[in-house]
Amino acid sequence: MFxxxxxxxxxxxxxxxxxxxxxxxxxxxxxxxxxxxxPHQLVFSICGNTVGSLAGYVSxxxxxxxxxxLDAHMERSAFEALYTTYQPHYxxxxxxxxxxxxxSLVYAERDYQLWEMCANDTPVHDDLSVLLTTSGxxxxxxxxxxxxxxxxxxxxxxxxYLHITADERPVTGLPMYYSFGLSIINSHLLTGATxxxxxxxxxxxxxxxxxxxxxxxxxxxxxxxxEIMKKLKLWKQSMPTLRTLTQAGGKLSNELLQFFMEKYNxxxxxxxxxxxxxxxxxRMSYLEPxxxxxxxxxxxxxIPGGHFSLVDDDARMIEVANEVGELxxxxxxVSLGYAECAADLMKGDENHxxxxxxxxxxxxxxxxxxxxxxxxRFLKLFGNRISLDYVETLLKDKLKESVCVGDDLxxxxxxxxxxxxxxxxxxxxxGRTKIVRTVFFVKHIDIIPRSESGKILYKELSVD
Amino acid sequence: MTNIxxxxxxxxxxxxxxxxxxxxxxYKETAEWNSMAQIALVAEIEEKFDLDFDTDDIFxxxxxxxxxxxxANKFSVEF
Lengths: 464, 79
Description:
heterodimer, A: about 475 residues, Rossmann fold, GMP Synthetase, Chain A, domain 3, five-stranded mixed β-sheet, about 25% helix, B: mainly alpha, Non-ribosomal Peptide Synthetase Peptidyl Carrier Protein, Chain A
Protein backbone atom coordinates (compact mmCIF):
# COMPACT_ATOMS: atom_id res chain seq x y z
CA MET A 1 0.00 0.00 0.00
CA PHE A 2 2.76 2.44 0.88
CA UNK A 3 5.04 3.06 -2.13
CA UNK A 4 7.60 5.14 -0.29
CA UNK A 5 10.20 5.02 -3.07
CA UNK A 6 7.82 7.01 -5.30
CA UNK A 7 8.61 10.06 -3.22
CA UNK A 8 12.40 9.55 -3.19
CA UNK A 9 14.07 12.50 -1.47
CA UNK A 10 10.91 14.08 -0.03
CA UNK A 11 11.17 14.23 3.74
CA UNK A 12 8.89 11.63 5.31
CA UNK A 13 9.28 12.67 8.91
CA UNK A 14 11.05 15.02 11.30
CA UNK A 15 11.50 14.47 15.04
CA UNK A 16 12.32 16.86 17.91
CA UNK A 17 15.90 15.52 18.02
CA UNK A 18 16.34 17.09 14.57
CA UNK A 19 16.37 13.78 12.73
CA UNK A 20 14.97 13.99 9.20
CA UNK A 21 14.24 10.89 7.14
CA UNK A 22 13.63 10.89 3.40
CA UNK A 23 11.05 8.54 1.93
CA UNK A 24 13.90 6.39 0.56
CA UNK A 25 15.51 6.18 3.99
CA UNK A 26 12.19 5.26 5.60
CA UNK A 27 11.71 2.62 2.92
CA UNK A 28 15.13 1.16 3.73
CA UNK A 29 14.20 0.86 7.40
CA UNK A 30 10.87 -0.81 6.62
CA UNK A 31 12.65 -3.31 4.37
CA UNK A 32 15.08 -4.21 7.15
CA UNK A 33 12.12 -4.90 9.46
CA UNK A 34 10.24 -6.85 6.74
CA UNK A 35 13.17 -9.19 6.15
CA UNK A 36 12.89 -10.33 9.75
CA UNK A 37 9.10 -10.71 9.67
CA UNK A 38 7.06 -13.50 8.16
CA PRO A 39 3.94 -12.35 6.26
CA HIS A 40 0.37 -13.11 7.38
CA GLN A 41 1.26 -13.07 11.07
CA LEU A 42 -0.44 -11.24 13.90
CA VAL A 43 1.68 -8.38 15.27
CA PHE A 44 1.05 -6.32 18.40
CA SER A 45 2.45 -2.87 17.70
CA ILE A 46 3.04 -0.71 20.76
CA CYS A 47 2.63 2.80 19.43
CA GLY A 48 4.25 6.15 20.01
CA ASN A 49 4.70 9.13 17.73
CA THR A 50 8.25 8.06 16.89
CA VAL A 51 10.24 6.88 13.86
CA GLY A 52 10.40 3.32 15.20
CA SER A 53 6.66 3.05 15.67
CA LEU A 54 5.96 4.59 12.26
CA ALA A 55 8.46 2.40 10.40
CA GLY A 56 7.08 -0.75 12.05
CA TYR A 57 3.52 0.12 11.08
CA VAL A 58 4.41 0.80 7.44
CA SER A 59 6.53 -2.32 7.28
CA UNK A 60 3.85 -4.65 8.67
CA UNK A 61 1.17 -3.23 6.35
CA UNK A 62 3.42 -3.60 3.30
CA UNK A 63 4.48 -7.09 4.44
CA UNK A 64 0.84 -8.29 4.60
CA UNK A 65 0.85 -8.86 8.33
CA UNK A 66 -2.11 -8.02 10.57
CA UNK A 67 -1.17 -5.36 13.12
CA UNK A 68 -2.99 -4.50 16.31
CA UNK A 69 -2.13 -0.90 17.20
CA LEU A 70 -1.87 -0.38 20.96
CA ASP A 71 -1.26 2.48 23.37
CA ALA A 72 2.18 2.24 24.97
CA HIS A 73 0.69 3.50 28.24
CA MET A 74 -2.18 1.05 28.42
CA GLU A 75 -2.81 -0.75 31.69
CA ARG A 76 -0.65 -3.84 31.96
CA SER A 77 -3.65 -6.02 32.73
CA ALA A 78 -5.35 -4.73 29.56
CA PHE A 79 -2.31 -5.65 27.48
CA GLU A 80 -2.17 -9.09 29.04
CA ALA A 81 -5.85 -9.72 28.41
CA LEU A 82 -5.38 -8.89 24.72
CA TYR A 83 -2.22 -11.00 24.55
CA THR A 84 -3.98 -14.01 26.05
CA THR A 85 -6.99 -13.61 23.77
CA TYR A 86 -5.14 -13.13 20.48
CA GLN A 87 -1.71 -14.81 20.91
CA PRO A 88 0.35 -12.61 18.55
CA HIS A 89 3.38 -14.04 16.75
CA TYR A 90 5.28 -10.75 17.01
CA UNK A 91 5.44 -7.75 19.31
CA UNK A 92 6.92 -4.49 18.01
CA UNK A 93 7.65 -2.37 21.06
CA UNK A 94 9.88 0.41 22.37
CA UNK A 95 12.90 -0.59 24.44
CA UNK A 96 11.92 -1.27 28.02
CA UNK A 97 8.47 -2.59 27.20
CA UNK A 98 8.00 -5.77 29.19
CA UNK A 99 7.35 -8.67 26.80
CA UNK A 100 6.24 -12.22 27.71
CA UNK A 101 9.04 -14.53 28.90
CA UNK A 102 8.73 -16.78 25.85
CA UNK A 103 9.57 -13.93 23.47
CA SER A 104 12.88 -13.90 21.65
CA LEU A 105 14.44 -10.78 20.21
CA VAL A 106 14.78 -10.95 16.42
CA TYR A 107 15.58 -7.40 15.43
CA ALA A 108 16.10 -3.88 16.78
CA GLU A 109 15.76 -0.60 14.90
CA ARG A 110 16.10 2.82 16.50
CA ASP A 111 14.59 2.45 19.97
CA TYR A 112 12.22 -0.29 18.83
CA GLN A 113 12.50 -4.06 19.14
CA LEU A 114 10.87 -6.92 17.27
CA TRP A 115 10.03 -9.87 19.50
CA GLU A 116 8.90 -13.26 18.24
CA MET A 117 6.74 -15.76 20.11
CA CYS A 118 7.32 -18.90 18.04
CA ALA A 119 4.64 -20.96 19.78
CA ASN A 120 1.93 -18.45 18.91
CA ASP A 121 0.48 -19.20 15.52
CA THR A 122 -2.86 -17.40 15.26
CA PRO A 123 -4.00 -17.57 11.63
CA VAL A 124 -5.26 -14.34 10.09
CA HIS A 125 -7.44 -13.71 7.02
CA ASP A 126 -5.56 -12.62 3.87
CA ASP A 127 -7.47 -9.33 3.70
CA LEU A 128 -6.84 -8.36 7.33
CA SER A 129 -4.27 -5.58 7.69
CA VAL A 130 -4.88 -3.45 10.78
CA LEU A 131 -6.76 -4.01 14.03
CA LEU A 132 -7.86 -1.10 16.21
CA THR A 133 -9.38 -1.14 19.67
CA THR A 134 -12.90 0.17 20.08
CA SER A 135 -12.53 1.64 23.54
CA GLY A 136 -9.14 3.29 23.81
CA UNK A 137 -7.01 1.65 26.46
CA UNK A 138 -9.68 0.04 28.62
CA UNK A 139 -8.64 -3.42 27.48
CA UNK A 140 -11.88 -4.61 25.94
CA UNK A 141 -10.94 -7.45 23.58
CA UNK A 142 -13.34 -6.08 20.95
CA UNK A 143 -11.40 -4.94 17.89
CA UNK A 144 -12.26 -3.42 14.53
CA UNK A 145 -10.88 -5.36 11.54
CA UNK A 146 -9.56 -3.24 8.68
CA UNK A 147 -8.28 -4.25 5.24
CA UNK A 148 -5.73 -2.46 3.07
CA UNK A 149 -8.60 -1.50 0.80
CA UNK A 150 -10.30 0.17 3.79
CA UNK A 151 -7.15 2.08 4.73
CA UNK A 152 -6.26 3.15 1.23
CA UNK A 153 -9.73 4.17 0.12
CA UNK A 154 -10.29 6.26 3.25
CA UNK A 155 -6.88 7.91 2.92
CA UNK A 156 -7.55 8.73 -0.78
CA UNK A 157 -10.90 10.32 0.09
CA UNK A 158 -9.29 12.40 2.83
CA UNK A 159 -6.47 13.49 0.51
CA UNK A 160 -9.06 14.63 -2.00
CA TYR A 161 -11.30 16.73 0.25
CA LEU A 162 -8.51 18.20 2.38
CA HIS A 163 -6.45 18.86 -0.77
CA ILE A 164 -3.39 17.24 0.80
CA THR A 165 -0.21 17.71 -1.21
CA ALA A 166 3.45 16.85 -0.69
CA ASP A 167 4.13 20.22 0.94
CA GLU A 168 1.84 19.54 3.90
CA ARG A 169 3.43 19.21 7.35
CA PRO A 170 1.01 17.92 9.98
CA VAL A 171 2.18 17.82 13.59
CA THR A 172 1.10 14.70 15.46
CA GLY A 173 -1.25 15.76 18.22
CA LEU A 174 -3.07 12.42 18.21
CA PRO A 175 -1.79 8.90 18.84
CA MET A 176 -1.22 6.40 16.02
CA TYR A 177 -3.33 3.69 17.69
CA TYR A 178 -6.38 5.93 17.38
CA SER A 179 -8.21 5.75 14.03
CA PHE A 180 -8.17 9.54 13.58
CA GLY A 181 -4.44 9.76 14.30
CA LEU A 182 -3.72 6.83 11.99
CA SER A 183 -5.74 8.43 9.19
CA ILE A 184 -3.42 11.45 9.33
CA ILE A 185 -0.38 9.19 8.98
CA ASN A 186 -1.93 7.26 6.06
CA SER A 187 -3.19 10.24 4.07
CA HIS A 188 0.11 12.08 4.33
CA LEU A 189 2.38 9.11 3.60
CA LEU A 190 0.37 8.42 0.44
CA THR A 191 1.06 11.93 -0.85
CA GLY A 192 4.75 12.29 -0.01
CA ALA A 193 4.13 14.87 2.71
CA THR A 194 6.22 15.39 5.88
CA UNK A 195 5.04 14.12 9.27
CA UNK A 196 6.23 16.09 12.29
CA UNK A 197 6.51 13.32 14.87
CA UNK A 198 6.57 14.29 18.53
CA UNK A 199 5.82 12.54 21.78
CA UNK A 200 5.18 15.88 23.50
CA UNK A 201 1.63 16.85 24.40
CA UNK A 202 -0.07 19.94 23.02
CA UNK A 203 -0.32 21.27 26.59
CA UNK A 204 3.48 21.59 26.57
CA UNK A 205 5.49 24.48 25.22
CA UNK A 206 7.88 22.02 23.49
CA UNK A 207 5.08 20.75 21.25
CA UNK A 208 4.29 24.15 19.73
CA UNK A 209 7.95 25.13 19.60
CA UNK A 210 8.70 21.99 17.57
CA UNK A 211 5.66 22.57 15.34
CA UNK A 212 6.56 26.18 14.60
CA UNK A 213 10.28 25.50 14.14
CA UNK A 214 9.40 22.98 11.45
CA UNK A 215 6.75 25.09 9.71
CA UNK A 216 3.75 22.91 10.56
CA UNK A 217 0.74 23.39 8.28
CA UNK A 218 -1.99 21.46 10.08
CA UNK A 219 -3.13 20.33 13.50
CA UNK A 220 -5.92 17.92 14.35
CA UNK A 221 -7.83 17.23 17.51
CA UNK A 222 -10.89 15.84 19.23
CA UNK A 223 -13.41 18.17 20.94
CA UNK A 224 -11.44 18.02 24.17
CA UNK A 225 -8.28 19.17 22.34
CA UNK A 226 -10.05 22.30 21.22
CA GLU A 227 -11.43 22.98 24.69
CA ILE A 228 -7.84 22.92 25.91
CA MET A 229 -6.63 25.10 23.05
CA LYS A 230 -9.17 27.68 24.11
CA LYS A 231 -8.12 27.40 27.73
CA LEU A 232 -4.47 27.83 26.71
CA LYS A 233 -5.39 30.87 24.60
CA LEU A 234 -3.34 29.34 21.83
CA TRP A 235 -4.88 31.50 19.14
CA LYS A 236 -2.84 34.38 20.56
CA GLN A 237 0.35 32.53 19.70
CA SER A 238 1.91 33.20 16.36
CA MET A 239 1.56 30.17 14.05
CA PRO A 240 2.48 31.71 10.73
CA THR A 241 2.61 28.49 8.71
CA LEU A 242 -0.65 26.95 9.97
CA ARG A 243 -3.23 26.49 7.19
CA THR A 244 -5.64 23.82 8.37
CA LEU A 245 -7.31 22.72 11.61
CA THR A 246 -9.35 19.53 11.60
CA GLN A 247 -11.67 18.24 14.29
CA ALA A 248 -13.37 14.86 14.62
CA GLY A 249 -13.97 12.29 17.34
CA GLY A 250 -17.15 13.73 18.81
CA LYS A 251 -19.26 16.82 18.86
CA LEU A 252 -17.64 20.14 19.61
CA SER A 253 -20.13 22.61 21.10
CA ASN A 254 -21.43 25.17 18.65
CA GLU A 255 -20.11 27.90 20.91
CA LEU A 256 -16.55 26.57 20.66
CA LEU A 257 -16.86 25.97 16.93
CA GLN A 258 -17.90 29.54 16.40
CA PHE A 259 -15.13 30.73 18.67
CA PHE A 260 -12.43 28.93 16.69
CA MET A 261 -13.77 29.93 13.31
CA GLU A 262 -13.89 33.56 14.37
CA LYS A 263 -10.35 33.41 15.72
CA TYR A 264 -8.79 31.48 12.87
CA ASN A 265 -10.73 32.32 9.70
CA UNK A 266 -9.35 35.89 9.54
CA UNK A 267 -5.84 34.40 9.73
CA UNK A 268 -6.61 32.33 6.62
CA UNK A 269 -6.71 29.06 8.58
CA UNK A 270 -9.39 26.65 7.40
CA UNK A 271 -11.34 24.80 10.07
CA UNK A 272 -12.70 21.42 8.97
CA UNK A 273 -15.32 19.76 11.10
CA UNK A 274 -15.40 16.05 10.33
CA UNK A 275 -17.26 12.93 11.40
CA UNK A 276 -16.23 9.32 11.52
CA UNK A 277 -15.88 6.10 13.45
CA UNK A 278 -13.19 3.47 13.75
CA UNK A 279 -15.75 1.09 12.19
CA UNK A 280 -15.39 3.15 8.99
CA UNK A 281 -11.55 3.18 9.22
CA UNK A 282 -11.78 6.82 10.29
CA ARG A 283 -13.75 9.30 8.18
CA MET A 284 -17.32 9.34 6.85
CA SER A 285 -18.10 13.02 6.33
CA TYR A 286 -16.74 16.54 6.49
CA LEU A 287 -18.08 20.07 6.38
CA GLU A 288 -16.55 22.44 3.85
CA PRO A 289 -15.07 25.34 5.87
CA UNK A 290 -17.08 27.89 3.86
CA UNK A 291 -20.24 26.44 5.46
CA UNK A 292 -18.73 26.43 8.95
CA UNK A 293 -20.93 29.23 10.25
CA UNK A 294 -24.02 28.95 8.04
CA UNK A 295 -24.32 25.23 8.80
CA UNK A 296 -22.96 25.49 12.32
CA UNK A 297 -22.78 22.11 14.06
CA UNK A 298 -23.36 20.09 10.89
CA UNK A 299 -21.17 17.07 10.12
CA UNK A 300 -21.46 18.10 6.47
CA UNK A 301 -21.82 15.60 3.66
CA UNK A 302 -20.31 12.21 2.84
CA ILE A 303 -16.65 12.07 1.83
CA PRO A 304 -15.76 11.42 -1.83
CA GLY A 305 -16.73 7.81 -2.54
CA GLY A 306 -19.01 7.60 0.50
CA HIS A 307 -22.76 7.88 0.82
CA PHE A 308 -25.15 8.55 3.72
CA SER A 309 -28.76 7.55 4.18
CA LEU A 310 -31.19 7.65 7.11
CA VAL A 311 -33.46 4.84 8.22
CA ASP A 312 -36.34 4.79 10.71
CA ASP A 313 -37.06 2.21 13.43
CA ASP A 314 -38.74 -0.06 10.87
CA ALA A 315 -35.63 0.06 8.62
CA ARG A 316 -37.46 2.23 6.08
CA MET A 317 -35.48 4.90 4.26
CA ILE A 318 -36.23 8.48 5.36
CA GLU A 319 -36.44 10.72 2.31
CA VAL A 320 -37.80 13.94 3.84
CA ALA A 321 -35.71 16.69 5.41
CA ASN A 322 -35.37 17.29 9.16
CA GLU A 323 -36.59 13.87 10.29
CA VAL A 324 -34.36 11.97 12.71
CA GLY A 325 -33.29 8.41 11.92
CA GLU A 326 -30.28 6.16 12.20
CA LEU A 327 -27.38 7.29 10.06
CA UNK A 328 -26.22 4.60 7.62
CA UNK A 329 -22.99 4.91 5.66
CA UNK A 330 -21.82 3.11 2.56
CA UNK A 331 -18.29 3.14 1.19
CA UNK A 332 -15.12 1.15 0.62
CA UNK A 333 -13.79 2.31 3.99
CA VAL A 334 -16.42 0.38 5.98
CA SER A 335 -14.48 -2.11 8.09
CA LEU A 336 -14.63 -5.87 7.59
CA GLY A 337 -16.28 -6.29 10.99
CA TYR A 338 -15.34 -6.84 14.63
CA ALA A 339 -13.12 -9.40 16.30
CA GLU A 340 -13.76 -10.59 19.83
CA CYS A 341 -11.60 -13.72 19.84
CA ALA A 342 -8.65 -15.11 17.89
CA ALA A 343 -10.89 -17.20 15.61
CA ASP A 344 -12.57 -13.99 14.40
CA LEU A 345 -9.30 -12.95 12.74
CA MET A 346 -9.99 -15.55 10.03
CA LYS A 347 -13.33 -13.95 9.17
CA GLY A 348 -13.72 -12.07 5.89
CA ASP A 349 -15.88 -9.07 5.11
CA GLU A 350 -19.06 -9.16 7.16
CA ASN A 351 -20.23 -5.59 6.60
CA HIS A 352 -20.09 -5.56 2.77
CA UNK A 353 -19.52 -1.83 2.68
CA UNK A 354 -22.53 -0.84 4.80
CA UNK A 355 -22.25 0.57 8.30
CA UNK A 356 -25.16 1.23 10.66
CA UNK A 357 -23.48 3.95 12.68
CA UNK A 358 -25.69 3.79 15.77
CA UNK A 359 -25.87 7.59 15.56
CA UNK A 360 -29.16 9.38 15.14
CA UNK A 361 -29.11 12.17 12.60
CA UNK A 362 -31.21 14.32 10.33
CA UNK A 363 -30.60 15.98 6.98
CA UNK A 364 -31.59 19.57 6.30
CA UNK A 365 -33.17 20.94 3.11
CA UNK A 366 -29.73 21.51 1.60
CA UNK A 367 -28.53 17.95 2.21
CA UNK A 368 -26.30 18.71 5.20
CA UNK A 369 -26.34 16.13 7.99
CA UNK A 370 -26.62 16.88 11.71
CA UNK A 371 -26.09 14.40 14.54
CA UNK A 372 -28.99 14.30 16.99
CA UNK A 373 -27.62 11.75 19.44
CA UNK A 374 -26.46 8.22 19.90
CA UNK A 375 -28.97 5.46 19.35
CA UNK A 376 -27.75 3.26 22.16
CA ARG A 377 -27.29 5.82 24.92
CA PHE A 378 -31.00 6.01 25.60
CA LEU A 379 -32.94 5.94 28.82
CA LYS A 380 -36.61 5.30 29.17
CA LEU A 381 -37.79 7.71 31.83
CA PHE A 382 -41.48 7.47 32.61
CA GLY A 383 -42.04 6.16 29.13
CA ASN A 384 -40.07 8.97 27.52
CA ARG A 385 -37.26 7.70 25.32
CA ILE A 386 -34.46 10.14 25.97
CA SER A 387 -30.99 10.28 24.51
CA LEU A 388 -28.24 10.98 27.02
CA ASP A 389 -26.25 12.64 24.25
CA TYR A 390 -29.19 14.86 23.49
CA VAL A 391 -29.36 15.96 27.13
CA GLU A 392 -25.62 16.63 27.03
CA THR A 393 -26.13 18.76 23.94
CA LEU A 394 -28.88 20.73 25.68
CA LEU A 395 -26.71 21.26 28.74
CA LYS A 396 -23.98 22.84 26.60
CA ASP A 397 -26.19 25.94 26.46
CA LYS A 398 -25.92 26.25 30.24
CA LEU A 399 -22.82 24.47 31.53
CA LYS A 400 -19.21 24.69 30.43
CA GLU A 401 -18.67 20.94 30.72
CA SER A 402 -21.06 18.18 31.67
CA VAL A 403 -21.78 14.54 30.89
CA CYS A 404 -24.80 12.37 31.62
CA VAL A 405 -25.27 8.80 32.71
CA GLY A 406 -28.31 7.01 34.02
CA ASP A 407 -30.65 4.08 34.02
CA ASP A 408 -34.38 3.81 33.52
CA LEU A 409 -35.07 5.42 36.89
CA UNK A 410 -32.76 8.41 36.97
CA UNK A 411 -30.47 10.65 34.96
CA UNK A 412 -27.30 11.92 36.59
CA UNK A 413 -25.57 15.03 35.34
CA UNK A 414 -21.87 15.19 36.15
CA UNK A 415 -20.41 18.66 35.77
CA UNK A 416 -17.18 20.48 36.49
CA UNK A 417 -19.01 23.80 36.27
CA UNK A 418 -19.42 25.43 39.69
CA UNK A 419 -21.29 28.50 38.42
CA UNK A 420 -24.66 26.81 39.00
CA UNK A 421 -25.97 24.73 41.86
CA UNK A 422 -28.05 21.57 41.57
CA UNK A 423 -31.41 23.37 41.65
CA UNK A 424 -30.45 25.84 38.92
CA UNK A 425 -29.19 23.08 36.64
CA UNK A 426 -32.27 20.94 37.20
CA UNK A 427 -34.57 23.94 36.59
CA UNK A 428 -32.87 24.43 33.24
CA UNK A 429 -32.98 20.83 32.07
CA UNK A 430 -36.56 20.29 33.22
CA GLY A 431 -37.52 23.40 31.25
CA ARG A 432 -35.92 22.00 28.11
CA THR A 433 -36.90 18.34 28.34
CA LYS A 434 -40.25 18.67 30.12
CA ILE A 435 -39.39 15.60 32.15
CA VAL A 436 -40.33 15.38 35.83
CA ARG A 437 -37.57 16.83 37.99
CA THR A 438 -37.28 13.97 40.45
CA VAL A 439 -35.39 11.85 37.89
CA PHE A 440 -32.53 14.35 37.66
CA PHE A 441 -29.51 14.43 39.94
CA VAL A 442 -26.46 16.67 39.72
CA LYS A 443 -22.97 15.79 40.89
CA HIS A 444 -20.17 18.32 40.81
CA ILE A 445 -16.77 16.76 40.11
CA ASP A 446 -13.26 18.14 39.60
CA ILE A 447 -12.54 16.46 36.31
CA ILE A 448 -14.43 14.43 33.73
CA PRO A 449 -12.64 11.07 33.33
CA ARG A 450 -11.24 10.66 29.84
CA SER A 451 -9.10 8.19 27.91
CA GLU A 452 -5.69 9.12 26.50
CA SER A 453 -7.34 10.15 23.26
CA GLY A 454 -9.86 12.35 25.10
CA LYS A 455 -12.94 10.15 24.94
CA ILE A 456 -15.23 10.30 27.95
CA LEU A 457 -14.99 7.19 30.13
CA TYR A 458 -18.66 6.83 30.98
CA LYS A 459 -18.03 3.59 32.85
CA GLU A 460 -16.10 5.48 35.50
CA LEU A 461 -19.10 7.66 36.31
CA SER A 462 -21.33 5.97 38.85
CA VAL A 463 -25.04 5.67 38.17
CA ASP A 464 -25.79 5.49 41.92
CA MET B 1 -8.44 30.57 54.75
CA THR B 2 -4.92 31.86 54.12
CA ASN B 3 -3.45 31.91 50.63
CA ILE B 4 -1.10 29.03 51.38
CA UNK B 5 -3.97 26.93 52.70
CA UNK B 6 -6.00 27.74 49.63
CA UNK B 7 -3.09 26.85 47.32
CA UNK B 8 -2.30 23.61 49.18
CA UNK B 9 -5.93 22.60 49.22
CA UNK B 10 -6.14 22.73 45.44
CA UNK B 11 -3.25 20.31 45.08
CA UNK B 12 -4.36 18.04 47.91
CA UNK B 13 -7.82 17.64 46.40
CA UNK B 14 -6.57 17.24 42.85
CA UNK B 15 -3.92 14.60 43.59
CA UNK B 16 -5.18 13.12 46.89
CA UNK B 17 -1.94 13.76 48.77
CA UNK B 18 -0.99 14.87 52.27
CA UNK B 19 0.85 18.06 53.27
CA UNK B 20 4.30 16.50 53.31
CA UNK B 21 3.97 15.24 49.72
CA UNK B 22 3.09 18.62 48.22
CA UNK B 23 6.64 19.83 47.54
CA UNK B 24 7.39 16.86 45.29
CA UNK B 25 4.36 17.21 43.03
CA UNK B 26 5.28 17.79 39.37
CA TYR B 27 3.89 17.36 35.85
CA LYS B 28 4.49 13.84 34.50
CA GLU B 29 6.45 12.82 37.62
CA THR B 30 3.29 12.63 39.69
CA ALA B 31 1.28 9.78 38.18
CA GLU B 32 -2.03 11.64 38.13
CA TRP B 33 -0.58 14.91 36.88
CA ASN B 34 -1.06 14.38 33.15
CA SER B 35 -2.11 16.81 30.44
CA MET B 36 -5.74 16.68 31.53
CA ALA B 37 -4.89 17.32 35.17
CA GLN B 38 -2.71 20.22 34.05
CA ILE B 39 -5.69 21.98 32.55
CA ALA B 40 -7.97 21.22 35.50
CA LEU B 41 -5.32 22.45 37.91
CA VAL B 42 -4.80 25.69 36.04
CA ALA B 43 -8.55 26.32 35.96
CA GLU B 44 -8.81 25.70 39.68
CA ILE B 45 -5.96 28.04 40.59
CA GLU B 46 -7.35 30.76 38.32
CA GLU B 47 -10.73 30.48 39.96
CA LYS B 48 -9.63 30.29 43.58
CA PHE B 49 -7.17 33.19 43.25
CA ASP B 50 -9.22 35.13 40.72
CA LEU B 51 -6.38 35.23 38.20
CA ASP B 52 -6.10 34.99 34.45
CA PHE B 53 -3.07 33.04 33.26
CA ASP B 54 -1.64 33.55 29.79
CA THR B 55 -0.35 30.70 27.63
CA ASP B 56 3.20 30.90 28.93
CA ASP B 57 2.05 30.81 32.56
CA ILE B 58 0.15 27.60 31.86
CA PHE B 59 3.14 26.05 30.07
CA UNK B 60 5.38 27.07 32.95
CA UNK B 61 3.23 25.76 35.78
CA UNK B 62 4.83 22.35 35.93
CA UNK B 63 5.25 21.74 39.63
CA UNK B 64 3.81 22.70 43.00
CA UNK B 65 6.94 24.72 43.78
CA UNK B 66 7.09 26.54 40.44
CA UNK B 67 3.41 27.42 40.70
CA UNK B 68 3.87 28.94 44.11
CA UNK B 69 6.82 31.02 42.95
CA UNK B 70 4.90 32.18 39.92
CA UNK B 71 1.91 33.24 41.98
CA ALA B 72 4.14 35.14 44.39
CA ASN B 73 6.41 36.81 41.83
CA LYS B 74 4.15 37.49 38.88
CA PHE B 75 0.74 37.80 40.49
CA SER B 76 1.78 39.26 43.86
CA VAL B 77 0.04 36.59 45.89
CA GLU B 78 1.38 36.73 49.44
CA PHE B 79 2.12 33.39 51.03
